[in-house]
Target: Cytochrome b5
Amino acid sequence: MSKEIPLATVNQHNKATDLWVVINNKVYDVTKFRLEHPGGEDSLVDVAGRDATKDFNDVGHSSEAREMLKKYYVGDLAAADIKQKSPISCRHVALALGAAFIGITLVYVIRRGVARN
Model:
């Protein structure tokens, strides 16, 4: 069983000389990797001591980079600190409302055009 690490513990490792990050609910100690990081040391220091999942995914790391993470694995983020994803995001709600508005507008325009003929 993997060691569970609270986010509060990860938050304490927020310096270039002691650098932990969370990626996909797994905790990594990348202190020794920071000078080798192709994106530069600063990109790691900027996310030190916090959840870097979005930053990591946004860059589009290669499968080799994802494989390298295994070497720096410390443990899993504590279950209490894992953010639960809501089944419906704001984006989904906005898309649904936009589609409903367009649909209602089209029905109105079509009926108005038919009524004129």
User: Anything to note?
Assistant: The mean pLDDT is 89.
